[in-house]
Amino acid sequence: MLEGLIAKASILMEMASNSQVAHAVTQASGAPGTPWWVWPLALFITTFVMGILAVMAGVGGGVLFVPIISSFFPFHLDFVRGAGLIVALAGALAAGPGLLKANLANLRLALPVALIASTFSIVGAFIGLALPANILQICLGATITMIALLFVFSKNSEFPKVGKADAVTKALNISGSYYEPSAGRPVDWTVWRTPQGFLIFIAIGVVAGMFGLGAGWANVPVLNLLMGAPLKIAVGSSKFLLSITDTSAAWVYLNQGAVLPIIAVPSVLGIMLGSLVGVKLLAVAKPKMVRYLVIAMLLFAGIRSLLKGLGWG
Amino acid sequence: MSIQAKAEKIQQQSAPVKQKKAVPKVEVPPEQVKYANLLLYCSWTGIGILAVTFALYMGGVITGYVPKTEIAQYWGLSVHDYLAATGAPTGWAWLSMLNHGDYLSLVGIAFLALLTIVGYLFLLLPAYLRKKDVPYFTIVVLEITVLCLAASGILKVGH
């Protein structure tokens, strides 16, 4: 009888050890012995701090979320990207009303750009969900490192010179005005090089959907430096158009089962509360120091992600 | 003012010169204001739904499809392996599982993700139709199509 039991046990052991899923399940739980609730709580605290830093550094929370959470938490990159999109979406939706009413987010500029970016963010989401995790991790690491360097070297222009309007700008009548407090009067604006800008938004959409990143880091330089939108219009329209770009990619992740509430919800709540506190702290903090800190964090997370993907981390 | 005239005016204006009296007169299109109001009320409602449903789930009032004490065994798996290991649904099938805390928490997320479609369909589409603004009417129709396609779950991915 004992021999029978041992035989059955060894068959079960062999089945378990042969099962890739069973092996992956054992590997997946992160630090063994850590109670389950520690991770959502740590996630909430981390995203709360992230929300504060993001506001003070003038960057979107979405760009910090994916590299940092995927580097230091035991969650699979698929779920981190899904949560990253929800975080960026919630932030953009909440910021949208103020920006639209002040005409800092302009529908005539944002709608055509959003159509291109949101269409290609679906393509990006499918690429991201189809690629092996290590390849995706390498691409994410390279992208985040590049973004950190972009933050260091990119010099935005408050009021860029705008050349002759192109045919697309004329056809779509992309222009507007906003109140500039430093001037004490409304400022009229339009854009140029619109076809070139639209082409770049194809790539921005793919990257946003692929990595679950908010794409403000790319939107602002394209709208401001290439298309010539004033900096405030570029920042405002970029933030608003994330609410459209991220919606399409978020639906893809949601439908594929890649949004886990236990990761997404504490992240959204943490980053939203952090942003509210960040706005209050902005008056007393030194934003330049915080910006350097955020760039250093991004560089560290990017390089770590790159090494992880290469199997050296 | 034509777009060309506006471009020329902007070329000349470069950086604005400081003036003493502030006259904040900026014309915001009515559809933009309506869209802003929709986002204002509904985005915070969505975040509120998220907080409440998640509290019910975490507080143990409604149990999860994957018990929260076991979820740590699965969250490090790829989504493909997660679905295979837990038998979790894809597409809109989660709507039939709202008696589970984890899927109830998705209601707030889906609500937030639906806002743009609602705004485009009920505010922007009629506004541009009324104005006979053909380019923007077309853009709005195309965007609604793209978002509905993404939301429909028709598109699938192979791992």
From TrEMBL, chain A:
<feature type="transmembrane region" description="Helical">
    <location>
        <begin position="258"/>
        <end position="282"/>
    </location>
</feature>
<dbReference type="Pfam" id="PF01925">
    <property type="entry name" value="TauE"/>
</dbReference>
<keyword id="KW-0472">Membrane</keyword>
<keyword id="KW-1003">Cell membrane</keyword>
<feature type="transmembrane region" description="Helical">
    <location>
        <begin position="109"/>
        <end position="129"/>
    </location>
</feature>
<feature type="transmembrane region" description="Helical">
    <location>
        <begin position="135"/>
        <end position="154"/>
    </location>
</feature>
<keyword id="KW-1133">Transmembrane helix</keyword>
<comment type="similarity">
    <text>Belongs to the 4-toluene sulfonate uptake permease (TSUP) (TC 2.A.102) family.</text>
</comment>
<dbReference type="GO" id="GO:0005886">
    <property type="term" value="C:plasma membrane"/>
</dbReference>
<feature type="transmembrane region" description="Helical">
    <location>
        <begin position="41"/>
        <end position="73"/>
    </location>
</feature>
<dbReference type="InterPro" id="IPR052017">
    <property type="entry name" value="TSUP"/>
</dbReference>
<keyword id="KW-0813">Transport</keyword>
<feature type="transmembrane region" description="Helical">
    <location>
        <begin position="289"/>
        <end position="307"/>
    </location>
</feature>
<protein>
    <recommendedName>
        <fullName>Probable membrane transporter protein</fullName>
    </recommendedName>
</protein>
<dbReference type="InterPro" id="IPR002781">
    <property type="entry name" value="TM_pro_TauE-like"/>
</dbReference>
<keyword id="KW-0812">Transmembrane</keyword>
<feature type="transmembrane region" description="Helical">
    <location>
        <begin position="198"/>
        <end position="218"/>
    </location>
</feature>
<feature type="transmembrane region" description="Helical">
    <location>
        <begin position="79"/>
        <end position="100"/>
    </location>
</feature>
From TrEMBL, chain B:
<feature type="transmembrane region" description="Helical">
    <location>
        <begin position="136"/>
        <end position="155"/>
    </location>
</feature>
<protein>
    <recommendedName>
        <fullName>DUF1634 domain-containing protein</fullName>
    </recommendedName>
</protein>
<keyword id="KW-1133">Transmembrane helix</keyword>
<keyword id="KW-0812">Transmembrane</keyword>
<feature type="transmembrane region" description="Helical">
    <location>
        <begin position="103"/>
        <end position="124"/>
    </location>
</feature>
<keyword id="KW-0472">Membrane</keyword>
<feature type="transmembrane region" description="Helical">
    <location>
        <begin position="38"/>
        <end position="58"/>
    </location>
</feature>
